[in-house]
Write a structure and sequence with these properties.
Keywords: Membrane, Transmembrane, Transmembrane helix, Transport. It is a multi-pass membrane protein. This is Zinc/manganese transport system permease protein. Belongs to the ABC-3 integral membrane protein family. Its main location: membrane. There is one protein chain. This protein has one domain: ABC transporter involved in vitamin B12 uptake, BtuC (Orthogonal Bundle). The protein is 76% helix and 0% strand. The chain has twelve helices and no strands. The chain has 282 residues and is mainly α.
Length: 282
């Protein structure tokens, strides 16, 4: 394990994974708070379809990842109300995207699989240990920018999330914020797919945020907790995979995130006890 920790591929995975987890924790918290987890699930499948489309056309899979996740995120937001997609819209787009994914997968496997035989598998299950120096730098920059933008819009987005009508009446651009948030969700899905894969992406978005929501009712404390848990779970998963090389890193990361979320059911939050009437004087 000591020899693995000193390798360049592990340091690249740790650096890129830290920033990707940070972005997932911040974005995922608002996904949970806005009841849009289904959107994250849909975009995880969109990521696979976009990557397969790019590979089938002979392009870089990252182009397909980001174009598809951001574009479809905006599409389902536009079909919903006030930039907030509803389940019916997401379900319809979901079915359409899965059909396209099967179509592009067929084209890719029959025409271009010899050139990049493992690309499809890496999209599904991630390849965080396969990131080289340039890919790590790009991942850090993109995930860092996403995290910064989430923090910039956090306060008005929280206002629009908790009371949309009042926020709109106060002049908060609710619809623009909704679309902007979906762009960030799409970009996060595209970037995180390279780390944990499209099949496991939802876990990294939802598990840390779900644990944070269970542990605290305070929004900004929950936001920080979600980001912190995501980063710690990423570190724990990578170290677990290094200690047991037969464990795929994506599985180890998701197993750690799931264990932390399950542990929150053992924690009971203390709720304030309402003050009763003072006893009458004797």
């Amino acid at each position: 394990m000591i020899s693995i920790l000193g390798q360049d591929f592990f340091r690249n995975a740790l650096l890129a994974g830290t920033f990707i987890a940070l972005a997932c924790g911040l974005v995922g918290y608002f996904l949970v708070l806005r009841a849009q987890v289904f959107t994250g699930d849909a975009l995880s499948h969109v990521a696979f379809t976009g990557a397969m489309a790019a590979l089938a056309g002979g392009y870089d899979l990252r182009l397909g990842l980001f174009a598809a996740t951001i574009g479809v995120g905006l599409l389902i937001g536009g079909l919903g109300r006030r930039g907030r997609p509803d389940d019916v819209v997401i379900g319809g787009v979901f079915a359409w995207i899965l059909g396209l994914g099967a179509f592009f997968l067929t084209i890719y496997t029959t025409s271009r699989s010899a050139a990049q035989g493992g690309a499809g598998t890496s999209v599904l299950f991630g390849s965080i240990f396969g990131l080289h120096g340039n890919q790590t730098t790009v991942a850090v920059l993109i995930a860092g920018a996403i995290s910064l933008l989430v923090l910039v819009i956090a306060r008005p987005l929280l206002f629009a999330t908790l009371d949309e009508a009042v926020a709109a009446a106060r002049g908060v651009p609710v619809r623009v914020l909704g679309f902007g948030f979906l762009v960030l969700v799409g970009a996060t899905a595209g970037e995180a797919t390279q780390a944990v894969g499209s099949l496991l992406l939802l876990g990294l978005l939802a598990a840390p945020a779900g644990a944070a929501v269970r542990l605290t009712d305070r929004p900004f404390r929950g936001l920080a907790l979600s980001a912190g848990l995501a980063v710690l779970e990423m570190w724990g998963g990578l170290l677990l995979s290094a200690a047991a090389p037969k464990l795929p890193p994506s599985f180890a990361i998701m197993a750690t995130a799931s264990a932390v979320y399950a542990a929150t059911f053992l924690v009971r939050r203390r709720r304030p006890v309402p003050a009763g009437p003072e006893p009458a004087a004797a």
